[in-house]
Every structure is written in C-alpha cells, then in structure tokens.
Amino acid sequence: xxxxxxLFSILSLFLLSCSSDNEVSxxxxxxxxxxxxxxxxxxxxxxxxSLDSEKRVKILNLADRSYEFFYENNLVSKVIRTSAGDxxxxxxxxxxxxxxxxxxxxxxxxxxxxxxxxxxxxxSDSSLSHKYSLKINNVGDLTEFKVADLKYLKIESWGYxxxxxxxxSLWNSNAVSVYIYxxxxxxxxxxxxxxxxxxxxxxxxxxxxxxxxxxxxDGYITKSVTFGKEVTFHYVKK
Length: 238
Description:
Elements: H1 2-22, E1 35-42, E2 45-51, E3 57-61, E4 66-72, E5 75-83, E6 86-94, E7 100-105, E8 108-111, E9 113-115, E10 120-124, E11 130-136, E12 142-149, E13 154-162, H2 177-184, E14 199-204, E15 207-210, E16 212-215, E17 221-226, E18 229-237
C-alpha cells in the first residue's frame, strides 16, 4: 500500500512539473503612446511648446512673446502674455456649453456672444468703434475673422480652410487660437503652426493661398508652406 502511495505521489509531481513547463508566460503589456507637439520652426524661429499632464497647451514660447495657459473645469480660465519683460493677464469666463462668454484684460472687459447655428463669436470694444466676429470649426480652431471699423466704415477679414482628413499639430491637445486672437486682436499667424486640423489654405482681401503640406506615415503634418511662410513641426511620443 505504501508502495502504491509513493508511486502515485511521484506521478502527481511529474504531471504538475509538465503542466508548469507548458504554461506560456504572458507578454508584457504595451503602454500606449501619444504623439504630442514639442516645437515648431516658423520662418526660421523655434517656437517651444509645453503641455500639462492632461495634454493641454500650457506654454507657447514664440519668437517675440509667450502665452501661459491656466484651466478650470478643463476650460481656459486665464492666460498670461509676456513680451519684452512686460506681462498682463487675460481672464475668461464660459457659458454652460463651454463657449467663451466674456474676457477681461488691461482694465478692458468684453461681453462675448456665441451664435451656435453658425459657430460664430461676436463682441465689440469698449468704445464700440470696432466689432469683432470670429468663426470656428467643430474642434474650436479659428476659421474666419472680421473686424468692422465703425468709425471709418471699413472691414478687414481673414480666414483659413482645413484638411480634416489629416492631423494638425494640436491633434492630441486643445485648440487655443481663438483665445490668442481675443488677447491680441491679431496674431493670425499662430493658426499656421497651431491647429487641430492642418491648414489647407488661407484667404484675405488679396485672394486665396493654398498650403503645400507634408505628412508623416501616421498622418501628422510635418511641414507646411502658406503664402511663402514655412513651418516645420517636431513631435515627441509620450
């Protein structure tokens, strides 16, 4: 009886050993990476980009100025603009749909209306001498602006079209062009390096200007030339 028990124990150990040898070790889990903008080179100048832990734009260091963004409830609450040692803060409020409702800087306050049916922001300066209209696309990039000078009865306009089949520099981040425009009432060239979709063309009172773009194998824009202005894009994967 003891012999039978001993043989059974040996057989059990043998079977367990074989089972252990046949087990396949699980492959290590692959951590997904995200392609994020690191910097752009615009007309020979490097613009550095910093993103926060939520992949939102934190700092844009341009050739002549910088913008630092702060957030509340995932919306831009204020931006500090610095240029030549001088800085000022612009604060923003939003409505229940996340659209800009007002902004204030340098003792100036602007009430902003958003027309949902045409994706259009509108506001006037404190003297009511200028009226601004900013049109955006479905991801918040600025597509068209108009400034009506009510004193001299003239209108200035500019705009962009986008290639929505490709990925712009801020594809995995957030749109900031409308905020920058409201801060400076210009800075239109920031659309060329910073947009969710790549710029396909630009237009103004002088005509239309098509963009010549290059992309990498993942569909991200790597180089663009629009009305003679060249931008190259540099990414990191995190």
